[in-house]
Specification:
Number of strands: 8
Radius of gyration: 18 Å
CATH architecture: 3-Layer(aba) Sandwich
CATH class: Alpha Beta
Oligomer: single chain
Strand content: 15-25%
CATH topology: Rossmann fold
CATH superfamily: Alpha/Beta hydrolase fold, catalytic domain
Structural class: alpha/beta
Largest sheet: 8 strands, mixed
Helix content: 25-40%
């Protein structure tokens, strides 16, 4: 746990789920007149401490903004429980028929199922942000969403740091929003900066005995997910829009796999979002 962190537990009125917020407010500099920049970090139980330490260290440079860091997680100290609880929040709806196909059919089912992403974003907008803003002044023009997410809800966030996004989920269903996003960009309705990162080893990670899957299942998962190609291809398509107000960068972290890439992605994301 990062030093000087504040914890807020609440039960959502949107979806009835229990959440825990981890909030770190910078103290090195005075509060700007317009309020602090803020990073809203998915998987707060796992990565809040890394994000806070990274932000504070980088803010030692005078050209890097020192943001409020908000980790969005769950009221548990168990990593395995947090990993289970996140599954419904970070996935779009999927049919029972699709769950019976491919490597996903052999995955353990999370305790609360899948498909709650839209409500999760409502929780962030309607319940997380107001609680944070009641504690500290936030500049609503300097809000960053960071974690295993994609570039959506551009009216709520000005910048996105997508770390190893699971584009493959439900036959890449998340990409159905890409055309509408492109239209908003060309209409000048989505002025967005986005960093999309992935680990170079996510498509080639070797099998390790002891994993809860066979070697063949592991190969099938790697081939079906296409983590690196999906990320690079999406980043290239978004960058090719080349519209005013849109800036997209894609980074492939050499030597990192899916579990290793969050610290690297967070560090790169802090610099991307807050260096001026």
């Amino acid at each position: 746990m990062a030093l000087n962190a504040r914890i807020i537990d609440f039960t959502s009125k949107v979806n009835g789920r229990a959440y825990r917020l981890f909030v770190s407010i910078p103290t090195r500099r005075p509060t700007p007149p317009e309020g602090h920049a803020a990073v809203y970090l998915i998987d707060g139980n796992l990565h809040f401490g890394i994000a806070v330490d990274t932000a504070r260290i980088q803010a030692c440079w005078p050209d890097v903004i020192d943001p409020v860091v908000v980790g969005i997680g769950y009221p548990t100290d168990s990593v395995s429980t947090a990993l289970d609880l996140r599954m419904i929040d970070l996935t779009t709806p999927i049919s029972e028929e699709r769950l019976k196909k491919g490597f996903i059919a052999k995955m353990p089912r999370p305790s609360e199922g899948f498909g709650g992403m839209d409500n999760y974003f409502r929780v962030i907008e309607e319940e997380v942000k107001p609680r944070v803003e009641a504690m500290v002044a936030i500049n609503r023009q300097e809000q960053v969403l960071m974690g295993h997410s994609l570039v959506r809800h551009t009216a709520s966030f000005q910048q996105f740091v997508a770390i190893s996004p699971s584009i493959w989920w439900n036959d890449c269903a998340v990409l159905k929003h890409e055309a509408a996003f492109s239209e908003r960009v060309h209409a000048g309705q989505a002025r967005t900066r986005a960093l999309i990162t992935v680990g170079a080893l996510e498509s080639t990670t070797r099998f390790v005995p002891g994993l809860p899957a066979s070697e063949q299942d592991f190969r099938d998962m790697t081939e079906e997910c296409r983590m690196v190609p999906n990320t690079v291809e999406l980043g290239a398509r978004l960058a090719a829009l080349a519209a005013p107000g849109l800036h997209v960068e894609t980074v492939v972290h050499e030597g990192d796999d899916h579990n290793m890439v969050p610290p690297a992605g967070i560090a790169r994301g802090v610099r991307f979002a807050f260096r001026r």
